[in-house]
Amino acid sequence: MTTSQQTDPLIGRLIDGRYEVRSRIARGGMATVYVATDRRLQRRVAIKIMHGHLSDDQSFTNRFVQEARSAARLANPHVVSVFDQGQDGDMAYLVMEYLPGITLRELLRDHGPLTPQQVVDIMDAVLTGLAAAHRAGIVHRDVKPENVLLADDGRIKISDFGLARAASANTATGQALLGTIAYLSPELVTRGIADTRSDIYALGIMMYEMLTGDQPYKGEQPMQIAYQHANDSVPRPSARVPNIPDELDDLVLWSTERDPDERPADAQEMLDRLHEVEAELGYSLTAVPMQHTAVLSPTTETTAFERTALTTSPTRTRTTDPLGEIIQSTGATKKLTQTVERRRRKGLWLFTAIVLLCALVGGTGWYFGTGPGSLIQIPDSIVGSSPKEATAALEDLGLIVATGEEYSLEIPKGTVSSSDPGAGEAVHKNSTVTINLSLGPKPETLPSLAGTPIDEAKSTVEGLGLKTGDVSYQFSGDIARDGVIAASIGDQDVTKGGDTFQGETVTFLVSVGSVPALAGLAQDAAEKTLTDADLAVGDVSQKFSDTVPRGNVIEAHYDTPLRPGDSVALVVSKGQDLVQVPNVVGMTVNAAKQMLQKYDFKVAVDSNIPEKFWDDVIDDLFAVDATDPAAGKMLKRGSTVTITANL
């Protein structure tokens, strides 16, 4: 046991009161695999425990559970069996059968390229297991040598369905491409979409690597490798390693076509072709048992291949089983060789079965070709046609027509919007096809949106199947910032709600808050305030003010409604309107009055002359003695200046 295993806190722990952890096998990015003892059934198992820091991430937990569900659906000798799955506190675990041995990756790393026969043996087992997954509607999505197990007892199994998805889902991976970059199909790289043909591509890359000892594409960065998968064609393996049979070259090229439609549809189709290649190359023939003819000295240093050559008789009818020998040289037993030979003998009875099937084809050809069993494709042309036209078209094909109704945004009311089964699908004669007539867009009632935050309003609108249109903005003292001032559908005001139809477009007028207060601010501060509020500074005028200091804004003028980008005019204070009192002492009263009134002053006369003697003539005779305020004083325009005239 290594130091890291000695310090592993899970070693010796009892999981869920049942599984006693013995030692660690491997550690990956998502989980660690341990050997454990099932105390209840007293058997050795492998237990896969998800890393603790991933347990809070629901997506990782879902993938972990998905692995258990995907593998548990498969009952195939070439798929690692799943016994149990559960949760012990915050620790998610998966219990699988324990397979002592090595992985295909370890085999390639230790021995380099495999012989064509070894490649066929491994591909036969892997394709058999993967074909079972594809028949169950499961796409593995992470086929690579690390997930192919070569057990000590000769079994070959595929494992790690942590990335598996339903084959019909055909969905993108979402945040990032899943799977090892060296085995990703072009459609996964370019569109993030995987189906059974993506697994076939990964198998083709793996087969290339087994034949040549290397992957077809390399690069310093993962994206360089991904680019080559998306844009280049995989070369023939024989271009790197001569003497590889053409049949295996062709199988690699077929399975790694960039266009998914050009590849085998699934693992079963590729397996069928592999069996044909196996027979063509003579690998399905029964071999003469090995005869041990030499004994090595304990001191002799030889490689695994050399030991095999020394203990194998040259009298076999074909090449000795190299796969069995290599695995045996890494600690496997003779049982693997027996398993391989049994698999090859399948070729004989498979050939017999094919002959029988061919005989049946002739008898059933009529039934499925032109008889009652023939399939009819529902035409695309019925969508958008009238009910009468669609009914006639389907009845002419020998189908029974029923009608239904559904709301539709695209198809005009009263015409066919869809069918069940759908257009393009194949059905038997005399099957019933339901044509759904469009009711037009579905009616919806829109709630009041006045004052609602715009994000919430958009969610409400889109949740009802309506579309979000243009959003414009306006200053408002009544509606808070980002609140809806008004909403409309065309000319219809729906601010306070109303009846609508799905697919209609709602436009919004949204508040940016109140117009900024400018009165009393210094001119430069007022201009900055306008700029910060996304408003332009318009005309700036000045006038006297008794209350606003010189240089400060008296008032602002703008058009309503005011929108971002509009101009605001400013009126700036010139301060108080003060005038200097002129010197009128010595002037006649009339002359003094005229002078003071010229400066916009009001004039009051203080005199000791009796009023009964006072007239315009006297005004022109008497001179001014003094003024109040005195000459030179600054006085607000329009103020009263008192002049004094005496006898």
UniProtKB/TrEMBL annotation:
Top-level taxon in the UniProt lineage: Bacteria
EC nos: 2.7.11.1
Keyword Iron (UniProt): no
Catalytic activities: L-seryl-[protein] + ATP = O-phospho-L-seryl-[protein] + ADP + H(+); L-threonyl-[protein] + ATP = O-phospho-L-threonyl-[protein] + ADP + H(+)
InterPro entries associated with the record: Kinase-like_dom_sf (IPR011009), PASTA_dom (IPR005543), Prot_kinase_dom (IPR000719), Ser/Thr_kinase_AS (IPR008271)
EC top class, as a word: transferase
Protein's recorded name: non-specific serine/threonine protein kinase
Phylogenetic classification of the source organism: Bacteria, Bacillati, Actinomycetota, Actinomycetes, Micrococcales
